Amino acid sequence: MPIIKSAKKRVRTAKKAAVRNSKTRRSLRTALKSFVKSPSSKSHSAAQSTIDKAAKKGVVHKNKAARLKKQAAKKAKAAGVKPGKAAAKKAAPAKKAAPKKTAAKKPAAKKK
Prior knowledge:
- By secondary structure, the chain is mostly helical.
- The protein has helices at 5-37, 41-57, 62-79, 85-91.
- Helix 1 (5-37) runs antiparallel to helix 2 (41-57).
């Protein structure tokens, strides 16, 4: 057991991180298993989302996340799953350009 105050804090912080990482890892495995068990566009998008979250949090390496997503896409294609509304929403978020505001013209100054 550490004696120094900062070391004690690191132990507490490490415990919190371990719990958080294990929850993320568990949700990742659950999402992948549910997709493999019954492939659908909803479960596929949920699995991809979970993989992205795990990679963002650093639980899974980014290359492993890319590999998992590729494998999931391959299985979805083999099962005949087509990308649903979730995939369409991510693909088409094209924002419209705001109309430019024209400067209000000031009346000409009167000459005296």
